[in-house]
Design a protein that fits this description.
By secondary structure, the protein is mostly helical. It has 4 helices and no strands. The chain has one domain. This is Secreted protein. It comes from Lysobacter niastensis.
Length: about 120
């Protein structure tokens, strides 16, 4: 098994055990347009970064590609918020102010800005 495949499997397995932090948060975004917390795992963020890198390299950031590029940025941004929330929970404890603030930032983003561009 190649190193890339082994790393991808390890990342997916690790992400599957993390608890969902925003399960009870109400979203004002139409259900079919919502980015879900489960969409923000490390493998998806790495894939989004690769796609965005390719789009930049090919000059595909405008016209019909504009929203595709913005969707990749959304995944990266959401993943960063999710990782900060998990990191704060591990470092300071789940009931800490830091964990509460970063979790609130993630859940607020998911409820207001976590949507797919058409």
């Amino acid at each position: 098994m190649s190193l890339k495949i082994a790393l991808a499997l390890a990342l997916v397995a690790g992400a599957a055990t993390e608890p969902e932090l925003c399960s009870g948060v109400e979203s004002k975004i139409e259900p079919d347009m919502q980015i879900l917390e489960s969409d923000l795992n490390r493998a998806e963020a790495a894939s989004a970064a690769d796609k965005l890198r390719g789009m930049i390299g090919r000059g595909e950031l405008s016209g019909e590609f504009h929203f595709g590029a913005l969707n990749q940025l959304r995944i990266i941004q959401g993943h960063m918020l999710l990782q900060q929330a998990h990191s704060d929970r591990m470092e300071f404890g789940p009931s800490s102010t830091e964990a509460g603030d970063s979790t609130k930032a993630l859940c607020t983003w998911l409820g207001k800005e976590g949507f797919w561009y058409d």
